[in-house]
Amino acid sequence: MTVPLHRVRNYEELEGAQGREVFFRPQRYCTTDLYPLHCEVLLSLRGRERPGALLDVSQNGAAFEWPDGIPVAVGDHLETLAVRFDDHEPYRGEARVGSVRNLNGTRVVGVSFEGPLLPIDGILELRSVKAFAQSGPPPALWRTQGQERFKALVSDLRLYLEDWEPQLRRLESELPWHVLHGEGSPARAALIEKLRKTMAVEIVAFADEIDAASRGASPAETKAMMHWSRRHLHHLLMQAPSMHRAANKPFGYPGDYEVMRFIYEKPFEGPTLFAKAISLSFDQTRASCAVRSRKDLIKSELTALLASSPRPLRILAIASGPAQELLELFAERPEMRAPVEIILFDQDKGALAYAYRRLKPVVDPLQPHVKMIYLNDSIKRLIRDSTLFEPFGAFDLIYSVGLFDYLRTATAVGLARNLVRCVAPGGRALIANMVPENPSRWYLEYHLDWWLMYRTRAELLDIAERAAPGTRLRVLEEQSGINPFVEIQRE
Ligand SMILES: C[S@@+](CC[C@H](N)C(=O)[O-])C[C@H]1O[C@@H](n2cnc3c(N)ncnc32)[C@H](O)[C@@H]1O
Q1: Given a cut of 60, is residue 270 above it in pLDDT?
Q2: What is the pLDDT of residue 69?
Q3: C-alpha 383 – ligand 1 centre gap (Å)
Q4: Is 60 exceeded by the pLDDT of residue 182?
Q5: What is the b/e burial string over 264-275, where b = at least 16 CB atoms within 10 angstroms of the residue's CB?
Q6: How close is the Cα of 425 to the center of ligand 1, in Å?
Q7: What is the per-residue pLDDT across 93-129, written as a single tens digit (0 to 9) for each?
Q8: Ligand 1: which of 347, 380, 383, 453 to mutate, most ligand atoms within 8 Å of CB?
Q9: Phi, psi at residue 82, to the nearest 5°?
Q10: Nearest-angstrom CA–CA distance, 264 and 401
Q11: Going from the N-terminus, what domains does the chain have, and what CATH number goes with each?
Q12: C-alpha 320 to ligand 1 mean position (Å)
C-alpha cells in the first residue's frame, strides 16, 4: 500500500514483508547503493594482499571479483579477507566461500564472514555524509558584493510588510464578510481610504527607493539582486491576485486584459485583508497610475474629437484590450455632432468578448450614431499587409496604448508606418510608450518578470519620424509623466 508522505499511519495499518520475504535475511547492498563510497575487497593470498571489486555486501557476507590465476572452490576457507569502503575497513577476518560463478568472463565469489558482523548501518551513514559533502554548499544565488542600499531597503520592506500582516489578520477577524469582500459599506470605504493613506503610501515610497537603488547594476548584479528581492518579498507580494496573475501570465504574455482589469476596476482584491492591502498598494505605484492616466488622455482626446467634428468619424484602437476608455466615454453620454464608427483590434478573442459585453449596454442607447466593429487579428498581419484596413476607409484617429512598449524598434517603425497610411488627411495617430524613468521597474522586472521596451521621448519621436518622414509630430503627456504619446498629424 502506498501512503502519501505526509500521512502518519497508525500501528494497525503497518505491514511486514510478503511471501518468502517474511523469512528475514540481512539486506544485500550493491555498489551503486553505496555510491559515492569506493568499495573493494582485499584478499590475503600467498603472502600478498590482492584487491578485488566488490559487487555486493551485507552484514554477514560479500560477493566480489576473484583475482585471475588463483584457484577457488565452494567451501574454501579464507584466512584473511578485508572489506574496505574508502579508507574505512569495517571487516577484517576469516571467511568461507559459499558460491563461485562466472559473470561475463569474470569469476565472482560469494563469501560469508566468519568473524564479527560487518556494521552496515555505519557504512550507509558514511555514504550519506560523503554524498552530502560532495554536493557542495547550496548556491548563494542572491549573493553579490555591495548594493547595500538595495539590500537594506528590500529587507526593510519585508519587515514592514511582516509587521502589517498580523495586524491586518486581527482586524480581519473582527470585521464581517461584507466589509471585507462585499461592496458599498461605509466601513469598507473607510478601510480602503485608511490603507491607501498609510500602508500604500509607504509601500510606493519603498518601491520607488528600491527602484532607484537598483539602477546602474551590472547584469550579474541584477541577477543576484533579483534573487535577493524574491527571497525576501515574493511570497508576500504574490498574495495579491493582481500581482500573481501578472507574474504567472496564464495567457503566455504580460499585460493581458485580465491584468488590465485589476488596474482599471479591481484595486482591492484578494482572499485576505493583507492580500487586498498589497493589491491596493501596488495599484498606487506610478506604473499603475500611468495605465489609468494614459487611458484618461485617450478618453479626453476622443471626447474632444466627438464634440468637435461635424462630419462622420472613423476611429481605430490597436491592441484595444478591455477598451476601458470607450466604456467610460460612452457611459458618460458624450456630446456627438456626427456618427462614429470604431474598430477595436486585438489578437485576444477574450479581450474583444469582454469589451463587447461591456460596451453593448452603453453603446446600444446611442444607436444609430455609434457603430462598433471588433477585429480579432494580429499586428503581425498588419505589418505585412498595409491594405488590411482599406475596406473600412481612412481613420480620423488611430491610437495604440500598451503595445509599442513590447515591440522592437524595427517592428515599431514598420507598424507605425502602416498605421499612418490608414490615417485620413487631417487625421492623427497617437502612439504611447513608457519612458525609462518609470520608477516601478524594480517590482515589474524583479517580481513580475514584466520587461518593457522603454523609450525616451526622443526615441519615440524618432520612430514616428522614420515611419512618417516630414509629418507634424508632437509629444503629449499624460498625468503620471512616464507614459508619453507621440502624435503623428497627417496634413
Ligand atoms: C497591455 S494591454 C493594453 C490594452 C489596452 N490598450 C489598454 O491600454 O488598456 C496589451 C494588449 O495588446 C494585445 N496584443 C498583444 N500583442 C498583440 C498583437 N500581436 N496583435 C494584436 N494585439 C496584441 C493584447 O491582447 C492586449 O489586449
Answers
A1: yes
A2: 87
A3: 15
A4: yes
A5: beebbbbeebbb
A6: 26
A7: 999 999 999 999 899 999 999 999 999 999 999 999 9
A8: 347
A9: -120, 145
A10: 14
A11: 26-133 (2.40.10.220), 148-284 (no CATH), 290-489 (3.40.50.150)
A12: 6
